[in-house]
Amino acid sequence: MTRTKITIGSRGSKLALIQAESVVARLSKLHPHLDVEVRKVVTEGDRNRQVKLEQVSSIGIFVKELEKALLNGRIDLAVHSLKDVPTEIPPELCLLAVVEREDPRDVLIAKTRLADLPSGARIGTGSLRRAVQLTHFRADLVPQSIRGNVTTRVGKVTSGALDGVILAAAALQRLGWEDRITEYLPTNVFLPSPGQGAIVVEARQDDGAVAALVAPLNHLPTWQSVMAERAFLRALGGGCRAPIAALGTVTNGVLHLDGMIADTEGKRMLRTTTKGDATIPEALGVVLAQRLIGMGADAFVAQAKAR
User: Fold this and answer.
1) What are the catalytic residues?
2) C-alpha to C-alpha distance for 206 and 8, rounded to whole angstroms
């Protein structure tokens, strides 16, 4: 049966709504007849500001209420930042499409570049992954754990409360704030979170009509890249909250996958790469994880589980 109306669920933050509206625009272009409504859903992550963000991908605090709304029929689709989505989702749901990825890199907002900041400079981040990579790059800088939306975080720099903050490039770009970026941090130093920069559409497994509408939104090279990253995270035991990073890129049908895991203090870091057929992304993610486990990553996972 052809659908004439669908409801998309989204968090109510400015950035989340921009992401949801980008999906609305794509759907409306593909299906001019379709009436698309965006419904705001308040998540645990929006209510509970005490949970550290390195726990987000493990427990899905920005995702679970949207999934509940899908399961009870309040919404037909949920739009997420893929890095927030746990590697295991309810069996009644599925990830239908990942739109073309924006810049996956981290960025610095500060008065000067990272290499030029004075010793002792305080750098805000809500991510343990970013904090340990920062410490590994410059042990004389001081990571500061922060929460809040992008506006709040940027404001801590302009107010002088912090000397800099590290954020996702895609978030600044979607907000139209590229002019506030001091430096795009190279991925050979700051490898991003699995799925960073990608927007995913989630739906019910049994809703074939919605699946038919959404399937054309899927960008295959992005899908292949992020599925490899998520498989890597899952195979390492991503629920353990260890600092884990991964980035896949597809060129001429070949998937290049770069992965990292560190101890929670950032004193030791393991990193390696693999490449192979882009049509088997999950298998490549598992291969890369097993390679790191062979290098000693299991000790970092055990440390993180003990925290």
Assistant:
1) 84
2) 17
CATH class name, domain 5-99+198-218: alpha beta
Domain ranges of the chain: 5-99+198-218, 106-184, 226-305
Query: How confident is the model over 241-296, as pLDDT tens digits?
Result: 789 999 999 999 999 999 999 988 778 999 999 999 999 999 999 999 999 999 99
φ, ψ (nearest 5 deg) of residue 49: -90, 5
pTM score of the predicted model? 0.93
What letter does residue 195 receive in the DSSP assignment?
T
Is a pLDDT exceeding 50 seen at residue 56? Answer: no
- CA dist 57 and 46 (Å) reads 14
Q: Do the beta carbons of residue 164 and residue 117 sit within 8 Å?
A: yes
CB atoms within 10 A of CB 103: 17
Amino acid at 234: R
Listed range (39-48, 198-207, 251-260, 269-278) with the worst mean pLDDT:
39-48
